Queue: 3 jobs
Job 1
Amino acid sequence: MISIQTNGALGDGRTVNTEAIQRTIDVVAQAGGGTVLVPSGHFICGPLALRSNVFLHLEAGALLQAHRVIEGWPIIKDLYPAELNNGRSSDAGSVCHPFIYAENSSNIGITGNGIINGSGEVWWPHVKTGKIGNRRPRLIVFAGCDNVLLDGFRAENSPQWTINPVCCENVVIRGLTVFNPPDSPNTDGINPDSCRHVRISGCHIDVGDDCITLKSGTETACRPAERRACENIIISECLMLHGHGAVVIGSEMSGGVRNVVISNCIFNGTDRGIRFKSRRGRGGIVENVRVQSIVMDDVKTPIVANLFYVCGARGEARVADLHAYPVDETTPRMERLHFSQITAKRAHHAAVFLYGLPEMPIKDVMLNEIDIQMSPDAKEGDADMAIMIPKMKRRAFFARHVSGLSLCSVKVEGFEGPFIDAQDCMDLRNYEGGNI
C-alpha cells in the first residue's frame, strides 16, 4: 500500500493534488498493481484515471474532493463507449471527464470508509439556468472494465450521475452511502449500463433523481448488432430515500435488460417504487425480472411499467400516439415481470400502473402477496410521465394494453374508483384462477 502523500499530496483542504495522486496511481500500476492509500485529511484534486490492478483505498477520515473550478475541466472526445455521451455518439464534444474514471481495465476498485465529494454545488446552478446542459462530470465511471469492486465509502454531491459502470463485467457494489440533495438535477445514485454480472447490496441511497437504474443504451448510441444487454443483476438489502424512482429499468434499454432480482429493500419517499419505462423507437426487451420482499412508505406509485414514457421526447408524435404502429426492431417490449411479498403504505397516485403499447402489450405480469394502503392525505398527480395520462389520486390498478395479469393475495386499501381499471387487456386472472 502506497500513500498519496509519498508523492507530495497535502490534505490541507487547499492544495490541488491532481498530479500527486495520479502519479501515485501510475507508479503502482507500473509496478504490477496494488493499493493507493488516501489517508485521513481533506484532499482536493481534479479528474483522476484509475489503472488495471489498482485499488484506491480511502481511510476513515479521508475526504477526496473535486476542485471547484468549472472552467478548464477536461472534455473527452470520442469517449468509449458511446452510451457515456448521453446516447448521442455524434456529440462527442459534450462529455466532461468523470471525477474518477477507468477504461478497459481489470481488477480495479475503490474501497474504505472515507468520502468522495464531487463539488456538485458549483455545477447545479448552471444546469438549472440552462447554461451548460449535461456538460458536467459524473462522479465515478468505469467503462469496458471487468472485476470491479466499490466497497464501503460515501459518495456525495455528484454534479450528475454518481456511480456509473458501463459495459463492465463482474461488478460488486456493496455498503456504499450515496447522497445528493433532493433538488440536485439528474444526480442518479447507481446506474449500471450494459453491464453483466452485477451485485449491488447493503447500500444507502438518497439522491435527487433515480436511486438505482439499469440501462442498456439508446437507439442512437450504436448499431443494433453492437448493443449490449444489461443482464444478470442482483439488487438486495438496500435503503432508498427520495428521488424519482427507487429501482428503475430504462428508459435507455435498446440493448435489453434481463435476468434481474430485486429483494429485501426499503423504499421511502420516492416518486415511484419499482419503475419500468421506455417508448417507441427505443427497441430492446426487458424480461425475467423478479421483485420480492420490498417495504415502501410514502411512495407516490409503488409499481409502474410504462411504454409511453415521454421525458426527453416531448413533441414526437409517435411517442404519445394511442394508435397501433407496425412492430419492428424499434418496438420496445416488457414481459415476465413478477412481484411478490410487497408492502406499501401512504401511496398517493395509484397502487399499480401498467401501460403497454396497443401494438405491443406488456406480457406476463404476476403479483403475489401484495398489500398496498393508499394515503388518506393523497395528493393528485402523474402516476408516471406520459402526456395522455390523466392526473390520479388513490387509484388501485390502472392497466392499458396488458396481456397476462395474474393477482394472488393482492389487497389495496383506501382506493377510489374501480379496483381494476383495465382497457385492451387480455387474460386477467384473480387469485382463484378465474377471469377478472
Job 2
Amino acid sequence: MEQSKIVKYGNELYDSLKSCNVIEPLTSRETDITIEDAYAIQDVLIKKRIKEDGSKIIGKKIGVTSKVVMDMLGVNQPDFGYLLSDMIYSDGDEIYVTNKMIQPKAEGEIAFVLKEDLMGPGVTTADVLRATKFVMPCFEIVDSRIKDWKIKIQDTVADNASCGYIVFGGKSVDPRDIDLTTCGITLERNGELLHTGAGAAALGSPVNAVAWLANTLGEFGVGLKAGEVILSGALCAMVTIEPGDNITINIGGIGSATCRFI
C-alpha cells in the first residue's frame, strides 16, 4: 500500500477515536490490504496519539488468542497492539461509556508486569516466568472504530487491535505460585454469571501468549521491556456493555477486578 494511504487511514482512525464516530471497514475499501499494511497504519495511529495527546506507551496487548476468534477472522495466529498511559483505570473505577467509547465490550484477562526485558526470537515460557514481576487480573475494554464490528484481521490490527481501556484489579501474585493454564475465570454483569473460562483459552496458557508476542516482535527488532504491562488475551467470551452496567471478573488464585460504566 502506498505510504500516503497508510497515513490517511491512520489519521482517519485517530479522528474516529476522538470523535466517537465509526468508519467503514478498511478491508471493504482496500481489498488487497495486507497484515503488514495494517501494522503500518497502526504505527501511524499510535504515533499520532503520542504526539497529539501526550500518551506514552506502557505495554502491549495480545489479541485473537482463541480458536473461535481466529476462525471468525479467518486467521491462524494472534495479533498485537499497544497499551497507552491514557487507557488505564483501577479496580472499582467508573468509566464513561457515552462520551469516551463507541461500541465497547469487556473481556477478562491476566496482565503480566515485567521486571526484565524479553527479546525474541527464542523466548521460552521459562524465560517469561523468570522475567515476570507479578500478574494481575484485569479487564480489557475493547472498542472498535470500525462500523458494527464488521472486522477482518487487517481492520482490527490497524485499529490498534481494537483496544479501548484497561481496568486493573487490586491484587498481584507471583506467577510461579499458581497454575496459569488451569486457573478458572468467571465473568459477571450486574450480578449475573455470564461466562466462565480458564487460562488455557489463551494459546493453551497465558505464558505461551506472552512468549509468542516476544518472539513475534523480536522479528522486527522490538522487545518487551522491564516495567511494561503485557495483556495475554481473553480467557472467556466478551460481553457488550451499556451505561449502568457493573462488571466483575474473578480469576482463581489471582483475584478480581470490577468496574462500573456510566
Job 3
Amino acid sequence: MEHAEFRSQFPVLDSLAYLNAGTDGPLPRAAAQAAQQELDVEARKGRAKEHFERRGELGEALRASYAGMLGCDPSEVSLTTCTSEGLAIVIDGLGLRAGEEILTSDEEHPGLLGALAAAQQAGVSVRIAPFLEIHEHVGPDTRLIACSHVSWMTGRECPAGLAEVDVPLALDGAQGAGAVPVNVSHLRCDAYAGAGQKWLCGPDGTGMLYTTPELRGRLAVKRRGYGNLADPDQGLHARLHEDGRRLDTLALSAETLACALAAMQTLEREGWARVHGRARDLCSELALMLVAAGRQVVAGSAGTLLSFESPDPEAERASLAEHGVVLRDIPGRPWLRASVGAWNDEHDLQRLLDALR
C-alpha cells in the first residue's frame, strides 16, 4: 500500500498534524464505519440471541488480532477496557501482603501508579528505582517488578536486563503495543498490559492483557460474571474459564469490538514492519529537525515518542493546537511530547516546526 493511501484512511489528518497517539491514536475511517454499522443493525433488528453471538464472534476475532501483535497465542490474551485495568488485575490479583515488595521505576504513568498505591494501602511496600537501572535493584522481598515497556515520558525502552531477573515481571505496554515491535516471549514478561485506543487506533475503552499460564493461575479473580465464566448457566457453581478469558472485562459492546477490530485490520493490512519502521524513521527525523531549530530533545527519546523542552509547555501546547498541531505536555516536566506514527508524514513534522517559531 502506498503511504498516501494508508494516510488517507485517517480523516483527522485532512486538517490536523496529529501527533498524539500516545494519548489516543487517530481513528481510521473504517473503524468509525464498523462501529456505526453495528449500531445500525442493533437499531433495526434489536438485540437478541444473534446480537450476543455477534459480540462473541467479534471478541474472539479481536483477541486473535491482539495476540498476533503481541506474538502469543490467543488463549493467553484477556480483553480489557484499558492498560490500567490490566495492571490492576495483576497487582490486585496477586494478593501480596505486608512485608512483600513491588519494585517500580521513576518514570511510571498514573495508570500504573494508581494500582501500586492501592497495593501500598494494603500494606505492600512499593519501592522506586531509576527506570534504566530497575533490574539492578531487585531485593530479597521483591515479589513483582511492575514498570513500563516504553516510558511515556521519554520513549525509552525498559532495560534488556529485566529479561534475566528471576522475579515476576508485569509490563505497562501502553506506549509499546502498536508503537514498537512487541514479542512477549522475547521480553520474558509474565504479564503485558496494553491499550487499544493509543497506537492501535481503536476506541476508548479497549485494551488487552497477556499473562503466562503460571501467573494466571496465581491471580485471584474477584469479579465474576457472564463474560468470564465457562458455564454461566450453572449459577453459583459456574466455573471460570481456564485460559485468558477468565480475566476478561465483563462486557464490551459490539460496536466497540467492531471498531477496535477494524482499526487493527487497517494496521495489519499495512504490515507491522512498515508501521513500526516508518514511525521510527519519522521520529528520528523530527529529533534532528528540532535540534536544528534550537530545541533540546530529552535525552533517551527514541522509537515513536519524542519529548523536547518548552519554556511553557501548557501554553505552547494550546498555541500549537490553535495552529492545527496536536500533541501533549508532560505534567511536572518542562516538556512537550510528540507521538509520531506511521500515518504521519514530513508535512506534519514541518507544520510542527513552523508553529513552534
